[in-house]
Amino acid sequence: MVLWAGPISLSGYKIRGPFSAVPQRLKSLQLRLNSQLQRGLLSAVTMETTRRRAQQTSNGKASEHAQQSAQWGRAWEVDWFSLISVVALLIFAPFIVFYFVMACDQFQCSVSEPLLQLYYGDVTLLSIWARAPSFSWSAAKIYAVWVGFQVFLYLCVPDVTHKFIPGYVGGVQDGARTPAGLINKYEINGLQCWLITHALWFANARYFHWFSPTIIFDNWIPLMWCANLLGYAVSTFAFVKAYIFPTNPEDCKFTGNVFYNYMMGIEFNPRIGKWFDFKLFFNGRPGIVAWTLINLSYMSKQQELYGTVTNSMILVNILQGIYVLDFFWNEAWYLKTIDICHDHFGWYLGWGDCVWLPYLYTLQGLYLVYHPVQLSDASALAVLLLGLLGYYIFRSTNHQKDLFRRHDGSCTIWGRKPSFIECSYRSADGGLHRSKLLTSGFWGVARHFNYTGDLMGSLAYCAACGLGHILPYFYIVYMTILLVHRCVRDEHRCSSKYGKDWKRYTDAVPYRLIPGVF
Ligand code: NDP
Prior knowledge:
- This protein is mainly alpha-helical.
- It is 64% helix and 6% strand.
- Helix 15 packs antiparallel against helix 16.
- The N terminus is likely disordered.
- The strands form three sheets. It has a two-stranded antiparallel ribbon. A two-stranded antiparallel sheet has the order 3-4.
- Among the domains are: 239 residues, no CATH class; 121 residues, no CATH class.
- NADPH dihydro-nicotinamide-adenine-dinucleotide phosphate (NDP) binds next to helix 21, strand 6, helix 23 and helix 24.
- NADPH dihydro-nicotinamide-adenine-dinucleotide phosphate binds next to helix 21, strand 6, helix 23 and helix 24.
């Protein structure tokens, strides 16, 4: 039995403290005022509170696990390495995005050329900066209309598609239990938003001609400044909100480090009103709805520039289109993934969803505007098969876990009764919960075979661009780092949550991504 006690340490301490009679909002304000004092005491308080909470449980073993459970989720105490990484990311991530987009705009997508020309003195940082398109009010208007429209669709158009599309799960759905034991409700209407947005896009391109289908490409860098403004604004707002009016104080998580709090977030599920959920909105829209539109805009640009669209551009549009549609088709399932279930909302998600995702996940299409690659039939087929096989593994693995968890193990996986490991954990409110870890199907092959499928698909997008430049391969490098890091952090969390049961699971399924290798 394991005590899963992530956020109880601080909130549990506050609620039982001398200010327990004041309203919740004042408590969080008081929390802010006391934060300096608490920083020094935080780890002691954390351990003490966890210990006290553990002692309240009937099972004496709990206190032993409680000491470990302070490690749950994102860090409570930030080591130097994490701090330096966080500060470096906060400073350099916007420049990384700028570098890639600028390399396409000014250096024909060569990653090395800007550095070489800087080295030989052919250009200067100032001349590169001066040549980059600057902020424009017309781009700001486009961006404001875009985000405003997505907010409108998200908040004001309840889902009807689940009523007439068989098998689709939409409308109001429950999220996973939060660490404090709450279950939030979500309006799942992402597929509908995507369909309406794309129907309007095609209606415009075919009939209305309000704007050019190349509008996104034509304003790409000015739009990037707007996306940055929104990304920083929303992250800063979420940061301040967590101190002043958190949606759910029990689910807030503070460390003693302001940079870490800003980057990794404090609030778990910040909301405005009953339905505007920051995580669902910024994770799902506007970035992911835009992904396919951005690719369509690149395709239109190729057509405009060269009078033809290459098979590589079609492949990128199709494979990434499947991935995006899959995301919206399974949006209710997505509520149970790490982003929504375990990550707090900070700059990492806020800025990442506004800037990193739309700008770096679409680099292949951007590259193909500058380098229209026409693959041989055999290469195109190989890329298509790799992409589809990756998608199949990614989707089937996710589906197996979902099926298994929804039916509490009463289902068949690969035609047989599934094998699994029984485990238990405690939530912050002290409640004991049971869970099961699947060890058959793809989950018996490796502990994160869904990531392996995702990586195969990612490689296919890059391979569609041929071998002329490394820029389109940034995606597979990034996804490998992201998913390997995600494996490690998820397993760290699961190990704290399930304790010895997790060890039994890793003994049964020893590899993470590739059997026999890693
Ligand atoms: P998973 O869907 O693998 O979820 C991990 C969680 O599943 C664990 O925390 C644990 O949660 C539970 N779990 C772990 N092992 C088992 C098991 N054997 N049986 C049952 N449950 C288990 O991870 P993600 O949420 O990270 O990813 C979801 C998908 O999204 C993946 O396919 C990934 O590739 C994709 N993704 C894509 C990204 C992109 O940018 N394109 C970014 C991130 C993810 P619990 O506490 O409930 O036990």
